[in-house]
Amino acid sequence: MTSPTASSHGTTSSSPTPPHRGGSPWATGGTVFAGVMMLVYGVLAVFQGIAGIAHDDVYARQGDYVFKFDLTTWGWIHLILGVVVAAAGLGILMGNEWARLLGVALAALAVIANFAWLPYLPVWAIVNIAIGVFVIWALCTDRSRSLV
Q1: Are 3 and 44 in contact (CB under 8 A)?
Q2: How many CB atoms are located within 10 Å of the residue 77 CB?
Q3: Alpha carbons 34 and 27: distance in angstroms, whole number
């Protein structure tokens, strides 16, 4: 009796499997989530900025703090940063490579701004810092598309 070969039963594959491009599914899904979070953060920062500009007594004033600015100045900072972050988040959702690079830089700026904003809204600032760190991680580790 002759034993059948593996190729006669079709168990071997003639087409090679596509190479794995690196990155994890968490990072790939995280990039979409990062784009959504940047869009949401941007819109909320715009509202936060408008509130700070319109009524500068909306936020509690803290004692002496190293990064002390007038609340109207903080309002303008949040408004401008919010518009740019929302635009970059929209660009990430559209798949633009420039938006991913800009998103990393803007998320880092948002983390720094929220650190300086800690005495005014500590819980909100800490949540925004955590979101910013996640956005930076997601945009830097997703290798499904090349950054350059």
Answers
A1: no
A2: 19
A3: 10
Task: Tell me the C-alpha distance between 20 and 28, whole Å.
Answer: 13
Whether the model pTM is above 0.85: no
Question: 75-117, pLDDT tens digit by residue?
Answer: 898 899 999 999 999 999 998 888 989 999 999 998 998 898 8
**SS3 readout for the chain:** CCCCCCCCCCCCCCCCCCCCCCCCHHHHHHHHHHHHHHHHHHHHHHHHHHHHHHCCCCCCCCCCCCCCCCHHHHHHHHHHHHHHHHHHHHHHHCCCHHHHHHHHHHHHHHHHHHHHCCCCCHHHHHHHHHHHHHHHHHHHHCCCCCCC
Q: How far is CA 116 from the centre of its chain?
A: 19
